[in-house]
Design a protein that fits this description.
about 775 residues, alpha+beta, Beta-galactosidase, Chain A, domain 5, five-stranded antiparallel β-sheet, binds beta-D-glucopyranose
């Protein structure tokens, strides 16, 4: 039977195999503003561990960061994405028996996410201990049409009984974040983040106002329940919770419909957020829920059309890819007040922080499918440029802006600077994303107004960090992407990216010089012509480590002097190494957590010959543990570039189901959004050989042996192009927009309507 390509369904949905924390993540609902982990509304037996959080993108509290030895400029306060409220609880009582998956008999059940409709659904046929049978369908939606809205929609069918039914729906402000003192990837202590301000019922809707303990942010949540048949309603409430209790009659064979609406508004986005919640609630209630479902599907239909990727005849893989892309849409902020956290809005891992994951792993997907999301992400960085300036001063730079390694609102949150703040490549990564956005859209106005300011200010940091020595430009004491090698001189990735960044700073200067916006910017940041000369000089003389004997780019100046550590000799239970070995121990070996030089060979492939890239790939492959989920996708792409098809495919396969199979054993803390973007990149940039460059767009499609064919759509300068790769041929179809020049297998074509060619290297 052909599977529904838009449904990811939990296999064997039975309670014996039900991993609550994992499924809280995998079935969460989010829309880029709100995120709600997936929980059974009726609850679980006591003492089960749960993380029932609900988040708002960009909403945080401060907590103190303990520094045992307080050196100058150390971070003393970090931000945490806060669990703001719990509006999930709905208890259904049939006469004297509460519905529970853990009591009575679950006759049949299904749990799935429908990615076409944008909903998560649980369907259960249940027999109570006393023999009452009902079927219930529970649909959850975080609305893309109305970002403030989350709904839970019940359809209850009494199968063999009539009688009293009670529905109790709670709105609970008494929530707390998850913590684990033994895992550096989660918060380490229990902290109260939200203080109640008020709790009231207005026009049948409950309103809970709360404020954060330290960051002085406020949030208002409102819940309204609708029961579409005759009933009695009463309320119970306390300082920060309310329960709405509906008493009604069930009639055998007659459906009972019940909807719980949650709306949220926060003080980051609205001055009068309580008022806004009222407006949002009225808006949600002004239309039938069927209208909201239609809008959800409409929104998704456009999304799927724009980012279409299809593998011929591989249904499971198609669902997996779709699942990953669905999560990226759920996670990405739709406004400049949020970004995309490394765990999206699905869990509290990394405390909701954003990293370079956003620019280097997720934006490459959005920039060529839905560039408007990349624009928002860049705007979010732009909005925090002043904090990046302050951060640069803290680190001793007199000019320029240095973005934090990890953050929510713009201030640095990294407590351990060698693998945190020292990752100066973050500046290059952000610049790279701005350049890519420009290359894909040619939106020069955006560059003039925002992009260039980011580019120039961050470029200044290279000049101040690095220095000329005997005619070459060196960048010392930084950390590259590989977090098992810290505080090094001339990290190849960093230097190569800084070179690209500085060259583009010069180019943008030349492109926008003379425009009104530029004049304003020049004055604002006091940009001097001599600085542009400095940028040029540093770029042209940038030192890029190269080893003649091995014909590779060493990861940094001292990397090749270090001892080797055979990965095969490390016991399986010692991975990830970061949880079992002291950092200093790791730093002294040639061992990599993730793609570093290999990553540079992907994003800056023209900086080195194929031969060097080949040797580097072979070299680093042997010493990379892939303890970071940001690694395998990059190895897949570079393997594909080198024609190492089997390797490329194996790495790709590892990325596809990373969360669905809980490969890193921490999906309970949230999805790995960078890997999800990487999974897409492995198809389009890897197998498809897609590249976005100053000279235009490039393709070099290969066909993995396991596939019969595949196709994907990309967006370039407002034109949408369909790429269709088959056994013998590949075809490029202009779906919409103006004709475009494309380069396929190093040959240029003008794509007006359709271009087809034979695929080289076919069997
Ligand atoms: C990786 C970083 C990444 C972070 C967040 C770490 O394990 O080493 O490169 O940015 O996770 O995903």
């Amino acid at each position: 039977m052909k599977k529904e390509q838009s449904i990811y369904e939990l296999n064997n949905f039975d309670l014996d195999n039900y991993n609550i924390l994992l499924y809280e993540t995998l079935f969460h609902n989010a829309n880029g503003y709100i995120g709600v982990r997936y929980n059974f509304e009726e609850g679980y037996p006591e003492n089960y561990q749960l993380v029932t959080s609900q988040f708002i993108n960009g909403f945080y509290n401060y907590t103190s960061m303990k520094q045992a030895e307080k050196l100058h400029g150390f971070v003393e306060e970090k931000q945490t994405m806060v669990d703001i409220v719990n509006t999930q609880s709905i208890k259904v009582k049939l006469e004297d028996e509460y519905f529970s998956m853990y009591e009575g008999t679950v006759i049949d059940s299904r749990l799935y996410v429908d990615m076409k409709k944008g909903i998560t659904v649980r369907e259960v046929i249940w027999r109570s201990p006393k023999g009452r049978e009902m079927s219930v369908k529970i649909t959850r939606m975080a609305s893309f049409y109305q970002l403030s809205l989350f709904t839970i929609d019940y359809e209850i069918l009494p199968i063999n009984f009539s009688g009293d039914v009670v529905i109790e729906s709670a709105h609970d402000g008494n929530v707390a974040n998850y913590f684990d003192p033994n895992d550096p990837r989660t918060a380490d202590e229990e902290i109260i983040h939200m203080l109640p301000v008020s709790c009231e019922i207005i026009n049948g809707a409950s309103y809970i106002m709360a404020k954060t303990t330290k960051s002085e942010l406020g949030v208002c949540s409102s819940v309204k329940n609708l029961l579409f048949q005759e009933h009695e309603l009463s309320y119970h409430f306390g300082e920060n919770y309310t329960v709405s209790k509906f008493t009604t009659k069930a009639k055998k064979g007659k459906k009972i419909n019940f909807i719980k609406y949650t709306v949220l508004a926060d003080s980051i986005r609205y001055h009068n957020y309580k008022n806004q919640v009222g407006i949002e609630m009225r808006k949600a209630l002004s239309v039938p829920i069927s209208f909201l479902y239609e809008k959800q599907e409409e929104y998704l239909s456009e999304y799927w059309d724009h980012c279409m990727v299809e593998i011929d005849g591989n249904e499971d893989l198609n669902i997996t890819i779709k699942y990953n892309l669905y999560q990226l849409l759920q996670s990405v902020s739709k406004d400049q007040y949020g970004n995309i956290a490394s765990k999206g809005l699905s869990g509290e891992g990394y405390e909701g922080h954003i990293f370079w994951d956003s620019e280097m792993f997720i934006q490459p997907f959005f920039t060529i499918t839905n560039p408007v999301f990349s624009e928002k992400l860049i705007e979010n960085r732009y909005a925090t440029l002043n904090m990046a300036r302050k951060n640069a001063r803290i680190l001793g730079h007199k000019t320029g802006a240095l973005f934090p390694w990890r953050t929510i609102m713009g201030k640095e949150c990294s407590g351990y600077f060698p693998s945190g703040s020292a990752q100066y490549h973050i500046n290059g990564d952000i610049a790279y994303s701005v350049i890519s956005y420009y290359l894909a859209t040619k939106d020069i106005t955006f560059i003039e107004k925002k992009g260039a300011e980011i580019i120039f200010e961050t470029a200044r940091i290279w000049i101040d960090t690095g220095n000329f020595h005997e005619g070459r430009f060196y960048i010392n004491d930084v950390t590259g992407p590989d977090e098992y090698t810290c505080m090094v001189n001339n990290n190849y990735y960093t230097n190569a990216l800084a070179q690209y960044h500085l060259r583009w700073a010069v180019k943008f200067y030349q492109i926008i010089k003379g425009s009104e916006n530029f004049d304003r910017l020049e004055k604002k940041i006091r940009l001097r012509e001599e600085e542009i000369e400095e940028f040029k000089n540093a770029a042209e003389n940038m030192y890029l480590p190269y080893d003649e004997k091995l014909k590779i780019n060493p990861q940094d100046d001292s990397f090749l002097q270090k001892k080797k550590w055979n990965i095969a000799d490390i016991p399986a239970n010692k991975f990830p190494l970061l949880l079992h070995y002291h950092p200093l121990h790791l730093y002294r070996y040639q061992i990599c957590k993730q793609a570093d030089t290999v990553m540079a060979h992907f994003i800056l492939e023209d900086a080195q010959s194929m031969e060097t890239i080949y040797h580097s790939f072979q070299y680093y492959e042997n010493i990379t543990t892939h303890d970071s989920s940001l690694s395998k996708c990059i190895f897949s792409i570079v393997a594909a570039k080198l024609g190492l098809e089997e390797k490329a495919y194996a790495y790709f396969q590892n990325t596809a189901r990373l969360d669905l199979d809980d490969q890193y054993k921490n999906t309970k803390d949230g999805i790995h959004t960078a890997n999800m973007g990487g999974n897409y990149m492995a198809i389009v940039y890897g197998f498809g050989g897609f590249r976005l460059k100053e000279e235009g767009i490039f393709f070099a499609p290969m066909l993995p042996k396991k596939w019969k064919g595949y196709r994907f759509k990309i967006c370039f300068e407002n034109s949408r192009i369909l790429v269709d790769v088959n056994k013998d041929t590949c075809e490029f179809i202009l779906v919409s927009g103006e004709a475009k020049k494309i380069t396929v297998y190093n040959k240029e074509y003008l794509l007006k309507d359709k271009v087809s060619m034979d695929r080289p290297g076919r069997e």
